[in-house]
Design a protein that fits this description.
This protein is α+β, with helices and mostly antiparallel strands. The chain has four helices and 14 strands.
């Protein structure tokens, strides 16, 4: 299954049409385990990811934790809402993020937080890989998230995007299996990732 855009229901007998956030809230309640996001004014629903996706995130957490990014000036968290500035109701829920320790003081709307507290966001691609590689690049750049990492299981690559300018990133480095990469220390510490290890963790096992 893949991510699907959802339009407003249009029932003249139902009274006023719900807002996108109201529709998102309804879908979250109706479809537990699905990821509901609004990017560029489009409400997107993504089915639950496979177990290998979860395994890749577990492997990813380890180098961030070992670098000391949890429990001090920053936190390393999964599935925390990020309020996007490019639309009145836009938000996303990155797979993994590094945020300022006081992020909870910067709650915006719909249980999402000010993008200014996000030092890094990371997505592990699933059925919605095009969203991670296209729409979210523009969304995170406009939100001025300094570092965006994509573990692209579809094409067996890891992308590191830095230096957001307007709706894109000025720097886009692509790493293949056999390479190691070091993330910018602006996230709070130097974190080294082994591309082959990450991609292997994200492989489905028969």
């Amino acid at each position: 299954m893949s991510a699907a855009a959802v339009e407003h229901p249009c029932d003249p007998c139902a009274g006023e049409m719900p807002t996108l956030l109201e529709e998102a809230d309804r879908l979250i309640e109706r479809l537990p385990g699905y990821r509901v996001e609004i990017i560029g004014g489009v409400l997107t629903v993504t089915p639950p990811a496979d177990g290998a996706h979860a395994r890749a995130l577990t492997v990813l957490m380890q180098p961030f934790m070992l670098a000391g990014l949890a429990g001090g000036e920053t936190e390393v968290l999964q599935a925390v809402g990020l309020w996007l500035p490019d639309g009145p109701e836009d938000y996303t829920v990155p797979d993994l993020c590094v945020v300022d320790a006081d992020f909870e003081d910067h709650l915006m709307e719909f249980n999402c937080y000010d993008p200014a507290v996000f030092r890094l966001v990371l997505e592990v691609t699933s059925s919605n890989y095009r969203q991670d590689l296209r729409n979210k690049v523009a969304a995170y750049a406009m939100a001025r998230v300094p570092v965006y990492v994509i573990v692209d299981r579809k094409h067996t690559r890891v992308h590191v995007l830095t230096a957001p300018i307007a709706n894109e990133y000025d720097s886009h480095e692509v790493y293949a299996p056999g390479q190691r990469l070091t993330l910018p220390d602006s996230i709070g510490a130097e974190v080294e990732l082994d591309v082959a290890e990450l991609l292997k963790a994200g492989e489905r096992r028969s």
